[in-house]
Write a structure and sequence with these properties.
The complex is a heterodimer. By secondary structure, chain A is of the alpha/beta class. Chain A is built from six helices and 20 strands. In chain A, helix 2 packs parallel to helix 5 and helix 5 packs across helix 6. Chain A is globular and about 70 Å long. In chain A, 50% of the residues are buried. The N terminus of chain A is likely disordered. In chain B, strands 11-12-8-17-18 form a five-stranded mixed sheet. A four-stranded antiparallel sheet of chain B has the order 3-2-5-6, with no helix packed on it. Chain B is built from 15 helices and 20 strands. In chain B, strand 17 and strand 18 form a beta hairpin. By secondary structure, chain B is of the alpha+beta class. Chain B folds into three domains: 70 residues, Sandwich (Immunoglobulin-like); 308 residues, no CATH class; 93 residues, no CATH class. Chain B is globular, with a radius of gyration of 26 Å. The chains are: A alpha/beta, B alpha+beta. At the A-B interface, helix 6 and strand 18 of A face strand 5, strand 6, strand 19, helix 12 and helix 13 of B.
Chain lengths: 365, 520
């Protein structure tokens, strides 16, 4: 690769920064890791003149940690370029991100690469439907320059033709901002065209719409997350697995879309994920991650009134039936899917969705 | 899932306004996406639990289904809001619809009955009376700040006084002028206001090209051979430009509030605005049958098709692209832009044509700018089109840009396409940017407020070598000639301040030297 030289040295990517230390246990055990995979994870919570955000750095940490874990992305930690913002700092700037990208491109040129994850969480705006500005910490109305063009960066990564797969996740607003020209990467060099690179692009919201963050309950802990980022992590952590224990492109996109919408709806907001796929010669059932786990939840159904109850599974096979009294409860392990509970006496009926992300769940009927 | 389970028909239909554009997804009981498509899905499925999601215009409707027999499931489409005051839109009201119909048939400015060509009809309004009361307590005219300019950017009409009809109570304004064929510009001078939070806000100036299309003699059965270009715009605190809908109808028909074709055009535009290149079967069928009763539908469909990576219907749209010049006039900017776009789509050579005026669709202008990277002469030197390429707003499907200030009013000209020199009305980049600033520091700072100048200097500073005009043009998404001119202006300014000690740091020797090497 002959990329254009950068004018000054950007600071080395932070390996951990605000994140908890994680290791890839496969490295310690001498087991294989995904040496051909790379990631650039950018989380910008701190801005010079825009409102501070609570979720981006935390969410970026969680994704970074998933990527490094042996049962997650199984990446070599040195292949994960984690670029968080920090209080009182105007870093990262474009150079910091381009430097990380430049390092990855060099590595990918030296040894065949399989996959690149690019994640940005922070403030953003929609320059138009296909170009999103990813705001850097220094962004302000006077520093219109300080926003990276989603399209220019994705085009660069795809057209380099160095990766078989590129996953591009943007958790930022897409509110319209007129007459803006988000920046292209400083990196140049040859661009064979990208015919061999599949790109999966996910925007946290539709053009002209905001992406939200909010306080959410994560395994009993209250934390602020971007709705999209939370759905993304849940999907990768098993929420998107099909009944074979695999995460396919379709199951992944569906899960993230569905969960983001439902998290927003819980807070009386609307947020619709937008996805685009380029050059997908593998098909939508392509497995992007194998978990080996079959998703399921132990459901406790608490009955508020008595009745003659029937619980049916996704294919209408009966899972459990019986007469219950008010105050009774059923404890049932259920697989991922829709279930229907019906009181044969009152004819009252409800659908229960088990998405596989929770180990236990309580449902009142 | 038991493969021996009996199967049943599940028919899912979106019903109601804009159902062609309602996107349906069916999930099986295991949360797997098993079918998707627009308007109607016919499926054969095993018994089980399913869910259906309908998405339209930002609304999401979810339903669960227990499938134990053949089932037909209709999902009403959610209410749709649009600038178009058509009968079946939630945001249409009798007090708007009636007046839109009335004034689309009655010019609001004096007209010469012998005028051939067409007309422009503008209808501005709030979403409803309540919004008018909330957002415009002083009942200001919706025409404030608007003017209609001719092809030379001379003011034909200001949207005020006797030129318009309006009701500032219910909140609407109509303007209707019979005009010769050609390009016109709807100019808006901007507006400062206090938003809902009480903070200052502003809507910047903007100009939008509008085309009055060639009279048509080759379409049988139309009530009039002249076209009327109809523009519908909704107001909030000020004009909400991305909501703008444009239609082209026979002049004598005026606006028809229950025209099925208008719903389809609005749906196409809305999808296109969101980067969804979807053409309903019914639209494709109309083209296959050669039904060209609506030029706007044809233009929109062609732009949608040539923006899409899909290769279905290649032959059909080759025909559409070939038919357009005869139908709408071969000199029409949108027709030329579509020919460029079609060439890019089919990977054919760029046709030998030139454009000096912007077309109505932003996608067309962008296609021409892309073509200019390899064919710089496609954009006429010093033309209005060249001038606006670095001032485009990209927030709607229509072309719009930050305009030069308004020239003085003149009487309506007989021929808008006289094509007088545009150069007189064009300021050079730097002169336009600079106002009353006098010191080099002030001028430099002001220059840097220009998106093009500041972004160009940013790239110059950050990138070391291999920089050339085409690379910068590609990064800035402007024609190479505009890059060259901008560099010339920066160098001219830099030269004039070479002896000044205090100047903006971006104008340092290193950057200036790089600019000079690019210029050579």
């Amino acid at each position: 690769m002959s990329s254009q030289p950068l004018v000054s040295e950007a600071p080395a990517p932070t390996t951990t920064g605000p994140c908890e230390e994680v290791t890839n246990e496969n490295l310690i055990k001498g087991l294989p890791v995904n040496e051909q995979d790379y990631a650039i994870i950018v989380g910008v919570s701190h801005y010079a003149s825009l409102a501070q955000l609570n979720a981006p750095v935390t969410d970026a940490c969680r994704l970074r940690n998933w990527l490094i874990k042996a049962d997650g992305g199984n990446l070599h930690p040195k292949h994960v370029f984690f670029i968080p913002s920090a209080p009182g700092s105007i870093m990262p700037d474009q150079l910091a991100i381009d430097k990380a990208l430049s390092d990855i491109l060099e590595l990918a040129e030296a040894t065949p690469a399989r996959r690149l994850y690019f994640y940005f969480s922070g403030h953003g705006f929609g320059a138009n439907w296909e170009v999103n500005g990813m705001c850097l910490p220094i962004w302000s109305p006077s520093f219109y320059n300080a926003a990276l063009s989603s399209k220019a960066y994705l085009d660069l990564l795809v057209e380099k033709d160095l990766f078989k797969e590129v996953y591009f996740f943007l958790d930022c607003c897409r509110d319209r901002k007129i007459n803006t020209k988000p920046l292209h990467s400083m990196l140049g060099g040859s661009r064979p065209g990208g015919a061999n690179t599949m790109a999966v692009l996910m925007y946290a919201s539709e053009y002209e719409n905001p992406a939200w963050e909010g306080m959410m309950n994560t395994n009993g802990n209250l934390q602020v997350h971007g709705y999209f980022s939370r759905a993304l992590l849940e999907a990768l952590n098993g929420g998107a697995v099909n009944n074979s224990g695999d995460i396919t492109i379709t199951s992944f996109l569906d899960y993230v879309r569905e969960k983001t919408e439902s998290y927003a709806k819980e807070k009386n907001q609307t947020q619709t994920v937008r996805s685009d796929i380029r050059n997908n010669s593998y098909g939508l059932d392509y497995v992007i991650h194998k978990t080996g786990r079959t998703p399921g939840t132990v459901l406790t159904i608490q009955f508020k009134t008595g009745g003659d109850i029937s619980l049916d599974g996704p294919d209408l096979s009966n899972i459990k039936s019986g007469v219950v009294q008010a105050g009774d409860s059923w404890l049932i392990p259920l697989g991922k899917g829709y279930h229907q509970i019906t009181d044969k006496i009152s004819k009252k009926s409800s659908f229960i969705t088990i998405d596989g992300t929770l180990k236990t769940m309580i449902y009142e009927f | 899932m038991n493969s021996n389970a009996p199967t049943f028909k599940l028919t899912v239909s979106a019903v109601g306004v804009m159902s062609d554009f309602a996107h349906l997804t069916v999930y099986n009981g295991f949360l797997e996406d098993i079918a998707r498509g627009y308007e109607k899905l016919d499926l054969n499925l095993p018994q089980g639990l399913y869910s259906i999601t309908l998405k339209l215009d930002g609304n999401i409707v979810k339903e669960h289904v227990r499938l134990t027999e053949d089932t037909s499931y209709d999902i009403p489409t959610p209410p749709v809001y649009s600038s178009l005051v058509a009968d079946r839109f939630e945001s249409s009201h009798e007090y708007y619809t009636h007046n839109a119909q009335h004034y689309s048939l009655e010019p609001t400015v004096p007209t010469d009955d012998t005028t051939e060509g067409g007309a422009i009809f503008l209808f501005f309004r709030y979403t409803d009376l309540e919004k008018r009361k909330e957002l415009n307590t002083k009942q200001l005219s919706l025409g404030n700040g608007f003017s209609l300019l001719d092809a030379d950017r001379q003011v034909l009409y200001r949207l005020e006084g006797n030129n318009i009809r309006e009701d500032t109570d219910t909140g609407w304004m109509a303007f209707h002028a019979v005009l010769p064929i050609g390009t016109y510009y709807l100019h808006y001078s901007g507006y400062k206001f206090h938003n809902g939070d009480g903070g200052p806000d502003d809507i910047p100036p903007r100009e939008i090209p509008l085309q009055v299309f060639k009279s048509n003699t080759c379409l049988p059965g139309l009530p009039d051979k002249c076209w009327q270009t109809q523009v519908f715009l909704t107001f909030g605190y000020g004009p909400i430009f991305p909501s703008m809908s444009v239609f082209i109808a026979p002049r004598k028909s005026g606006f028809i509030n229950n025209d099925e074709g208008n719903y389809r055009i609005d749906g196409l535009r809305h999808k296109f605005h969101n980067g969804v290149y979807y053409l309903p079967e019914k639209v494709l069928l109309e083209f296959e049958q050669g039904q060209w009763a609506s030029p706007m539908k044809g233009l929109l469909a062609a732009y949608v098709y040539f923006s899409s990576p899909e290769t279905d219907n290649e032959a059909l749209f080759r025909n559409v692209a070939q038919d357009l010049p005869a139908l709408l006039g071969e000199d029409t900017p949108d027709v030329k832009a579509l020919q460029v776009m079609a060439a890019q789509y089919y990977k054919d050579p760029i046709p030998a044509l030139t454009l000096s005026q912007p077309c109505m669709f932003l996608a067309g202008v962008r296609a021409v700018i892309r073509a200019s990277l390899t064919h710089p002469d496609i954009i006429v030197d010093d033309s209005l089109l060249e001038d606006i390429t670095d001032k485009l707003y990209c927030d709607m499907v229509w072309t719009s840009y930050l305009p030069a200030p308004l020239p003085a009013t003149k009487q309506q000209t007989g021929d808008a396409t006289s094509g007088g020199s545009l150069t007189d009305s064009i300021f050079n980049v730097v002169e336009r940017i600079i106002g009353d600033e006098v010191t080099p520091e002030e001028i430099g700072e002001r220059l840097l407020q220009s998106q093009t100048v500041s972004t160009l200097l940013y790239y110059i500073e950050k990138l070391n070598d291999d920089l050339n005009v085409n690379d910068l043009a590609s990064r800035l998404q402007i024609p190479p000639n505009v890059v060259k001119k901008t560099i010339n202006h920066i160098l001219a300014f830099s030269d004039s301040i070479k002896d000044v000690k205090s100047k903006p740091e971006q104008f340092n020797i290193s950057n200036i030297d790089k600019l000079k090497s690019i210029q050579q």
